[in-house]
Amino acid sequence: MAIGILQALFGLAGSVAFMFSGTVFSSAFGGWRNLLYLLGAGSIILAFLWIATIRDPSLARQGAVPIPRRPMVGGTITRLARNRDVRILCLISFLSLGAWIGASGTLPFLLKNARGLSPQSANNLMSLATWSWVMGALVLSYLSDRVRNRIYVLFSGCVVSGLGLFMLCISDSTLTWLWACLWGFAGGAVVIIIPLLLDVPGIDARNSGAAIGMVSGMGNLGAFVFPMVIAAFILNTDQSIITLGIFCGLLGYTLAGLLSGKISYR
Hints:
By secondary structure, this protein is mainly alpha-helical. Helices cover 77% and strands 0% of the residues. It has 11 helices and no strands. Helix 6 (119-146) runs parallel beside helix 8 (176-187). The longest helix has 31 residues, at 84-114.
């Protein structure tokens, strides 16, 4: 549940950005470039505040005397890379986050050109999907704490989210808002990846940090690769919005859900 709350706050910020960044905030700060400068500077300030105020609780238990440790990063990552479940979770993170970033960054443009929506309507539809993602991150992470196996929640969420995104891309009716909500809400299940990682065999307190870093890093790699593929190939097709639904919805989310069924669980 704690992971769900943290990720929901991330989604909350994203939904506000979709609603106001291209209209209100950009105009207020003299263009998108100045807005990005402001957001970047704010992130740096928050990082320094976090470093200055957060204390490692393990140091307090040890009398505030840090225990030196020999760096074993390479060896730890090599051992984790041999773990089949870690590799599967890395691929799920790659596909799901890549699909989310790729689709959310491209859909407003395609909805405006292919479906005739106004820029504000297209952004509001994406904001609706993001708000739904916030709710899904909270509800589904809570649900995963109550079921016997988190894999069931991750599997169902990714598959339903992929189908919702696909239907959003092929739908040309008033039901687009429903598919956007379904895509976002079910997609909130991806926050379960981190607590699920801590439940697979071979992951303990000695290597959990490196494992989380590997899975998160692969997710960010997907967030880089998917938009590149979309810009290079999908936007040049005749039915680009439908192709986007197949690529991000079926290949991204749905495949990620199917892969979750291969994870071991202790």
